[in-house]
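Class, study these two lines:
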Amino acid sequence: MEITAAIAAERRELADLLDGLTDEQWDAPSLCRGWRVREVAAHMSMGFRYSLSRMAGELVRAGGSLHRMTDRLAHRDAATASTAELAAFLRDNAHHPFKPPGGITAALGHDVVHGLDITVALGLDRRVPEDRTRVLLESVTPRSAAFFGARLKGVQLCADDLDWSFGTGTPLTGSGQDLLLVAFGRKLPPGRLRGDRQEEFVAG
């Protein structure tokens, strides 16, 4: 799979999906704690709209905390941009070369996971193409899971729709894209995972 083409396709598909949301869906909570759908959408385009120098300045103003910086910018941009603009930011920048730490695969992961933060929370049945899901699952490591706050000690993630597993211990079974969310530290709605320890990964 050519990752740059997958990134462009993912952004265009998500922009089309965002264009079809109702006002209530835009204001619904996402899987990202404290962020509605509109904050997630605003955050997804931050790397397109802020230069490195401006982002550095925002980081300084946030006391060096990346979390505080991204949270503040997401809320600010979500309040000032229209929903049409938030969707257009993704579509118009489908080929933008933004890369977070981790390179081009991390850029794909940024788009796919935040897209799932929206669609899974809203109960929308969007299936990420398997080639995109697979390349991201294969990039999961103990270090990346720890970075995103995924507590996977003693758990084996087992996809039931493709040939992939990660870790050792008590099996936690679900679709590849749901397990990708788990590996990125998300808690999912009830009924999407199976296993003796599933409740640890379900949103309360």
